[in-house]
Design goal:
two-stranded antiparallel sheet; Penicillin amidase (Acylase) alpha subunit, N-terminal domain; 36% helix
Length: 327
């Protein structure tokens, strides 16, 4: 909940000394990971506070991948973690939705059920089920959390539970598991009816807008949109500066983190002393000049997860800067 500093009993109370900083030093498992998630607990967490850290699903999956590495660990193994698009976080939602639809047979529900049954456990760009399950979870969340938003807004007009925290998965899952009558949204006679209606809304949201009622693939919903800041304002400039739109696998709650305008700004794997085997992948390329032959070079490799060398190749050009001669 938001905190009111106007009374003077809350607020800034000074810096910590370096000795008081939370530390994790040389862990016994020889693994470190963050993924923008919480990395400390207890007293250390009280010091750090909640700065809006991410839900721990992506960090947990990275941890699992790191623990499963086979020695000797090499660069391709570590790159594969960055490209891991297994949908572990949504797997229980897929199972819950299956049970809901199986318990409410109808022709319309069978169409949705058939789509959910195509689940392959990944956020693959060709998946029909992944986007449907993701949308179903969000529909359920919005409907169940709205009363809490309204309650908060009586005190804080702009209160938004979803903007205030990323940590709403556990209370949400508790609500749909316990199915308390007092928490069932109005206009629904049962939790079963509520879940089925949310599934129908999700199916509509994921359907193509051409009247065919066919589902969009996850790649169609999760396509890249990487544009130059100026191309939004200068007509036709985007033809020169913007990257082509393309379907992509991955999502926010897994190691292969992707979105329309969000994702891995680079993938890098370097073992000191073995730079000849190092990997670097960048979207759009390292060149900032759209007239350069190197502009966009490597973008397709980044999209496809193709390993590219970290070290520079053979020198192609030289630039010599000569000081101005004074008369």
């Amino acid at each position: 909940m938001p905190q009111d500093w106007s009374q003077g009993n809350l607020g800034w109370d000074g810096w910590l000394s370096s000795d008081e900083y939370p530390k994790i030093f040389n862990p016994g498992n020889e693994r470190l990971w963050t993924a923008n998630a919480r990395v400390v607990s207890g007293v250390d967490l009280q010091k750090v506070g909640d700065g809006g850290y991410a839900l721990g699903a992506r960090a947990h999956q990275i941890q699992q991948d790191l623990m499963q590495l086979q020695k000797p660990v090499d660069e391709p193994q570590l790159l594969s973690i960055q490209l891991d698009d297994k949908a572990l976080f949504l797997s229980r939602w897929q199972q819950q939705l299956l049970k809901v639809l199986q318990a409410s047979p109808s022709a319309e529900n069978k169409t949705i059920l058939d789509a959910v049954n195509t689940w392959d456990g990944t956020a693959s760009k060709s998946s029909l089920a992944y986007g449907l399950v993701k949308s179903y979870r969000l529909q359920v969340a919005k409907a169940l959390m709205e009363p809490f938003n309204q309650l908060c807004q009586t005190a804080y007009q702009n209160c938004d539970y979803f903007a205030a925290t990323h940590q709403w998965e556990q209370p949400l899952w508790t609500m749909i598991s316990q199915q308390k009558t007092q928490l069932l949204p109005i206009n629904y006679l049962s939790w079963s009816q509520f879940f089925v209606e949310m599934a129908k809304k999700a199916y509509q949201q994921q359907s193509k807008k051409d009247g065919s009622s066919k589902l969009l693939t996850w790649g169609e919903k999760n396509s890249t949109h990487i544009v130059h800041p100026l191309s939004r304002f200068v007509p036709l400039l985007g033809r020169l500066t913007d990257m082509p739109t393309a379907p992509q696998s991955g999502d926010r709650d897994m190691p292969h983190v992707t979105g329309h305008e969000f994702g891995q700004s680079e993938r890098m794997v370097v073992s000191p002393g073995h730079e000849e085997n190092a990997i670097l992948q960048m979207p759009t390329s390292q060149s900032g000049n759209p007239l350069s032959p190197y502009y966009g070079l490597g973008h397709i490799d980044w999209m496809q997860g193709k390993p590219t060398l970290f070290l520079p190749g053979k020198t192609q050009w030289h630039m010599t800067l000569n000081p101005l001669k004074q008369n």
